[in-house]
Design goal:
Layout: H1 2-13, H2 17-39, H3 46-61, E1 65-73, E2 76-83
Helix pairs in contact: 2-3
Length: 85
């Protein structure tokens, strides 16, 4: 049971495209729009729109990729990433 829970946590954290791609998009979008947020009165609308876009992208990518843990040891994790069609 303990090993299975650890493997599930690793599967979510280690380089799943449906997590990392939206987070990267969100980081770039916030970096680019920070001056807009600071200097305009309507800039506060940008942040919820960016978060919503990241969530929509994650939900769109989630069923397209499957990550399987082939081997898990204290030294690291060996995974297989497959794109579903």
């Amino acid at each position: 049971m303990q090993r299975r829970l650890r493997d599930r946590v690793r599967m979510l954290i280690f380089f799943t495209p449906w997590v990392t791609v939206p987070l990267a998009l969100l980081g770039v979008a916030i970096t680019v729009t920070t001056p807009l947020i600071d200097f305009t009165s309507l800039g506060w609308i940008c942040l919820p729109v960016e978060i919503g876009a990241a969530v929509v992208l994650a939900l769109w990518l989630r069923p397209r990729y499957r990550l399987s843990i082939l081997d898990s040891s204290p030294l690291g994790v060996f995974t297989l990433l497959q794109r579903r069609s």
